[in-house]
């Protein structure tokens, strides 16, 4: 195993600079994950006003969200693979830099075309979490690795909970460009801090980058996610949507065939089809679905007019504050998740987290009228999400060779993203189908919200079943693949995992 850099005093100062950098590695990586999640959510409070300030239609404005989703889904596995081959810190810094450039473009322009392109650049930041987790595996000793990985996984929820109220406050009391200038400054600081505090991992997997595989995966994912995200607008039975789904199936089938016949594939499908890896990806897909419904439905529910009989008529700022306890809970429970994984194994932590998510939705179904019960139910779901999201990368780290951790975790994050996209479409379909007119405008009924909660809870139980089906593993000290495992010895190392 590669030894960490010696912590000797710097010449003329007597200060152990490398040791300071080591202490800052986890905070710097975690702050990058939080910033990535904040960047993804800051545009949400702007959506109602963007048609007015840009002169674009509401359908066009929605692409400021869709572009980030598509770019993130495509670039996460691609950048993960690039990190394994060319250096994880190098690719991580590039992803943060692209995110920052996108934020600067948003701050400089009100043109909807520029905003959509800039938001697509920000989608590159979706790879920050899997790359950071891979760096933590390579650089930290085993006794610190579990809690650090759990914290890194939780940054997605923490950043989302912080980003919504922060953006709402800025939009309410300042020009909306100010928000992007603020995130630009934070992004530039994150790039500099990452380059200074994070050492480049020596673990690499040599080979040629699979350009054809990257293009094929990109085309297939764009067709799939574009159909899912626009199905409600274009019509699920429309020729465009059906054509996208058929195109996705054909392209991804050809991509799968190509990956199995490539010497250095973008995604090692033989590794993916192993039960410990494949079932972890299935659980990630289902957990992403269940998690996303929480914030999506809660935001709409508490902002519904009081005339509905259940709505609270809250502002977007108050709505963000309702989700804030969930973000704080995710921060507090990440070390708890690591402790459970160390003693009982990550698959038990994942199953427990999914079960807790289902319990949270049961609370939402029982009472969705009182604000304190809404906050309690949302916080319980966030707690379960913390346990599940913290366990998923640990499962992946134990099941794949060290030289493939970034790409494998990238695929796992991709599965969460697909789950979130499907969740958004499914929840929208349920709420549209169960609406009643209020002042001439269709508004979802309370029964519709309860059905959405029931659907998300059932998916969470399916995630629990998938977690329990994963072949058993021991606590943190169990068997792992050796660092630096080469492609030629991967199968032997995997049998030991």
Automatic annotation (TrEMBL):
It is a multi-pass membrane protein. GO terms for cellular component: plasma membrane. One of its GO terms (molecular function) is transmembrane transporter activity. Pfam families: MFS_1. CDD domains: MFS_MMR_MDR_like (cd17504). Keywords: Antibiotic resistance, Membrane, Transmembrane, Transmembrane helix, Transport. PROSITE patterns: MFS. Its main location: membrane. This is MFS transporter. SUPFAM superfamilies: MFS general substrate transporter. The keyword Transport applies. It is found in: Cell membrane. Residues 488-497 have a biased composition (Basic and acidic residues).
